[in-house]
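HUMAN: Quick job: go over this next protein and say how the chain folds.
***
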Amino acid sequence: MNWWSRRAENATAVAPSLLSADFADLGRDVAKMESAGADLIHLDVMDGHFVPNLTFGPLVVAAVRRRTALPLDAHLMVAQPERHFAAFARAGADAITIHIEAVPDPGAALAEIGALGLRRGLSLNPGTPLETVLPWLDRVDLVLVMSVEPGAGGQSFQPAALDKLRTLAARRAAAGLGFAISIDGGVNAGTAPDCRKAGADILVAGSYLFGAADAAAAVASLR
């Protein structure tokens, strides 16, 4: 069962964030999360411009693609993300999620992602009003709500994100749309129930999952 069929069945999908994996043994950690029951892998791509930190690019995505059949969502926390769409598509990404703050024309950027045959994701930072993404809800497959400031792992969950989840879920239902709602940042067994109740379909978690002694139990606890 993949993340999209879970969405259709009203079940919560779990997306380990690769940022918290052991990059000295990345294949092992990816395989561990797949065996633990994860639904997709979340790939935090940072460029040192849109966010302060640097992480990885298409070469790492291609390496992960060779080690797992799970869907790969490339979360591009980068300036001018449209320059990189084709490279991440060639690397094997199944979805590309971009930030509303990083693109002057979200409609054109989302259309480019769709033209590559990938699922189209749109994300917003904690301080960005939800209204900025509302005009594009009929053109996305995924909306990613950031519940921490993007750029680093291990931050505390910001409860204000729950209001955004509730509004997105209400808008989706009212308009009869099918996009998935995801949340990223400070997600763990303590915060996951509120996220699910507020409308999240996909829970992105990094340090909570990769730091767990029992990865399968940690995945199950998020569901």
